[in-house]
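Is this the right way to post C-alpha cells for a design question? Let me know if I should format differently. Anyway, here goes:
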C-alpha cells in the first residue's frame, strides 16, 4: 500500500470557549474530507468554519474528556447528521459523564454528556479520508488522554499533554504530574524531534525544541 502524499494533511484552528481551546479541523486536502478535533463548545462557530472551508466532516475526534475539549461534541454530532465520535480512552468516561456539571461551573449552558462511538487505545488507528493516525495512550493530564499521530506528515494532535514551553495541568481529578512527564518522554519523544504537535491551547510546537528548552521536561 502506498503512503499518502505528505501534502495531503491540512489543519486549521478554530478557537472555542472562554478557555480559547484549539478546536481544529484536520483534513485530507485531496479528498476534501476531514475531522473536527476537540469541539469544546461554540458549536455555531465551528459549523460556520466548516461551511467556509468546504470540507466534508466525517467524524469527531476527542483527545480527552475535559469540558473545553468535549463540551460541544454531542451537539456537533447531531448537527452534522450523526457522524461518529472516536476517542478518548475509556478511562475518561467519568469526565464525559460529568460534562453538564462541568459546563455549569463555567457558565456553559446546554452541555450534554458524551458516549463515543469508539473508545481508543494504544496501537489503534483512526482514518480521516486517506490519512491514518496511530493512537498512543498518554495519561497524566487525564487518565484517558490519547495522542493522534500521522507519520507521513510528521504531525501529532496532542490535546493538553504538551504545550509550547509547558505541559498539561495535573491538579484536576485523577491527574498526575509524574505520569504526564513519563507519557511525554516515553510516547512523544520516540516519534522524532521533527514532529510538529498541535496542542489544545497556544501555538503549535516541535518535539525536538520542547525536549531541549521546555523547563517542565528538564527539571
Amino acid at each position: 500500500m502506498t503512503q499518502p502524499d505528505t501534502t495531503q494533511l491540512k489543519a486549521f484552528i478554530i478557537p472555542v470557549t472562554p478557555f480559547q481551546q484549539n478546536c481544529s479541523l484536520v483534513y485530507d486536502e485531496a479528498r476534501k474530507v476531514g475531522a473536527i478535533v476537540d469541539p469544546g463548545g461554540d458549536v455555531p462557530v465551528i459549523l460556520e468554519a466548516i461551511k467556509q472551508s468546504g470540507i466534508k466532516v466525517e467524524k469527531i475526534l476527542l483527545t480527552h474528556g475535559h469540558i473545553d475539549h468535549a463540551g460541544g461534541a454531542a451537539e456537533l454530532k447531531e448537527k452534522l447528521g450523526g457522524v461518529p465520535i472516536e476517542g478518548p480512552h475509556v478511562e475518561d468516561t467519568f469526565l464525559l459523564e460529568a460534562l453538564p456539571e462541568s459546563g455549569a461551573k463555567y457558565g456553559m449552558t446546554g452541555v450534554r454528556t458524551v458516549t463515543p462511538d469508539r473508545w481508543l487505545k494504544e496501537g489503534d488507528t483512526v482514518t480521516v479520508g486517506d490519512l491514518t493516525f496511530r493512537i498512543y495512550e498518554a495519561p497524566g493530564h487525564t487518565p484517558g488522554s490519547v495522542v493522534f499521530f500521522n507519520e507521513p506528515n510528521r504531525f501529532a494532535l496532542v490535546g493538553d499533554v504538551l504545550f509550547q514551553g509547558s505541559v498539561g495541568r495535573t491538579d484536576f481529578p485523577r491527574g498526575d504530574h509524574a505520569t504526564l512527564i513519563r507519557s511525554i518522554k516515553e510516547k512523544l519523544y520516540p516519534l522524532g524531534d521533527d514532529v510538529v504537535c498541535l496542542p489544545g491551547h497556544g501555538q503549535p510546537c516541535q518535539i525536538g525544541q520542547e525536549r531541549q528548552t521546555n523547563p517542565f521536561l528538564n527539571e
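Format looks fine. Someone answered above. Worth noting: The chain is about 25% helix and 25% strand. The chain has a mean pLDDT of 96.
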